[in-house]
Structure formats: structure tokens, C-alpha cells
Amino acid sequence: MRNFATARILCIYQGIEYHLSPVATLARKSYSTSGPIRYIPGRFAQINKTQNFPSLQDSAKKEAPITGNTCSGLSNLDCRGLQNGRLNDEMLSQYDEPVRELFDTGYENMNELQTSSKADADGFRKIREEIEQVAVDLLAARAMTAIELRRKLHGKKYPSAIVESIVADFKSRGLLNDSMYAEAFTRSRWLSSTWGPRRIKQALLQKGVSEMETERARKEVFEQEEDPRSDGQGTQLGMCKLSMDHLFLQASKQWLRSRNTVVDNRRARIVRWLQYRGFDWGVTNYILKKLESQYPS
């Protein structure tokens, strides 16, 4: 009799625990309780089989990302959903109206930025082309040094950055060459106006040519290869024999024009003429003595 009562109580206890086990399991899942829950197979196992709860993997696939970041579960948005840099209608339909408006606003701002950048680039290119054309016209009118061209362009109120860029570009292409300009200027002033080294140097320095380039041009024009048969006097004075002969010829014309005046006045006139053109006293004295010996009074 006692054994029967014990067995009956055990059956009742198992039945109660059987009916309460699903509730305990759900409670543990809902409230994350740390108490031990005993699992008893039975009807709940059958219920668990019939109800196909979605797995975590399926749930992750159903998430609707908008950034493509797999770490945050936003991995469904890829390049297949984009058309010409924008989400297609099928992709946008997955989102609420505020989200779609956010996408539209973002793309409109991006398009405005791209249009503005393109307009700025076109405007910069047109301004540069205009300045380049002005620079070419100035160089076609006459040769210039880099500083002269820079001053001309700055005088027209063009942007300094573009002017400097064009000057540097012209230098690299050989359109501006201070060394060649210095030599051409020295030779031209010497042959056409009988300018001396001192006056030519002063003019080149004012035009922005370096002193080194100025000195190189002076030697190239005035100190050409000396004739071995010459007395070497011209070289000592910084001018070769050919240059001295050319200078003496021009000074002779001035000397003969005033041959009806007294000798002292003729001397003073020749000295002023040579000094004004930039010849030092050594060259002036040499030419004066040669004139007096060549054309005695």
C-alpha cells in the first residue's frame, strides 16, 4: 500500500513537471534566468518539431541593410542594387518613405557638388587659356624676360597663381630664356646703338636678368676669340680687337663731325659720348688717344 502511494505521488509530480517545463523554458529564454531547468521529453518536443522557428542565419538574411557593412548586419546592399550610382526602384521600395527621401536628397546634393566642381574646373581652364593667349601675344610683339612677362600679366590683374604657373610652363618649354635674351639684347644694343658693357649690364639687371647671365652675355659679345696678331690691348680692357675696331669706327664719325671746333671741345665731346654709352675710362682713354693719333689737328 505504501509503495502504491509512493508511485502515485511520483506520477503526479512528473505530470506537473511535464506541463510546467515549457513555461520554465520560455521563462528562461525571456528573462535569462540562471536557475537550472530540467528537460523532460514529451509533448513539448513534438510541439518544438511542428513549429519551425526561424534560425539565426535566416533572420540575418532578412535584415535590410543600407550601408553594406556586414559587421552590423548590413550586407545586402551591394553594387547589384545600384544603377548609375543610384539605388534602383526595387531596392528603394524596401525602405520607408523617410529613408527614400534621405537617399534622394543625398544624391541630389552629390549631383550639385559634381556640377559645381565641373563648372569651377571649366572656368579655371578658360581663364588660363585667356592668360596664355595674352602671354603669347606679348612675346610675339617683342622678346621679354620672365620677370617682364610676369609684371605685364600682373598689371592686367590676373590671378597670381595662374600667372606663376604659366611663366613656369613657358620656361620649361623654352618660350622664356633669360640667358638667350641677355645675349641677344647685348649684341643688339652694341651693334645698333654702340652701348658699352656698363650700360647694357644696368639695363639687363632692371629687366630681371641675373648678374651671372649678364656677365656671360658681356663676355660672349665683347670678348670674342682674340686674333693672335693683335697687340692684346683690347682684351686687357675687356673688349676684343674686333669690338675695339667697331667702337673706334663709330667714335671716328663723332670726331670728324666736330673737326672745325677746338681740340679741347672735341675731346670733351668724345669723352661724354663714350661715357654716356657705358664705356669705362680705360676704353675711353684708349679710343681718345687713337683718334688724336689717327686724325691729328
Automatic annotation (TrEMBL):
Gene3D superfamilies: Winged helix-like DNA-binding domain superfamily/Winged helix DNA-binding domain (1.10.10.10). Transmembrane segments: none annotated. One of its GO terms (biological process) is regulation of DNA repair. It is found in: Cytoplasm. It comes from the Eukaryota. Its main location: cytoplasm. Residues 177-211 form the RecX second three-helical domain. Pfam families: RecX_HTH2. InterPro entries: RecX_HTH_2nd, Regulatory_RecX, WH-like_DNA-bd_sf. GO terms for cellular component: cytoplasm. Keywords: Cytoplasm. Belongs to the RecX family. This is Regulatory protein RecX. It comes from Dendrobium nobile.
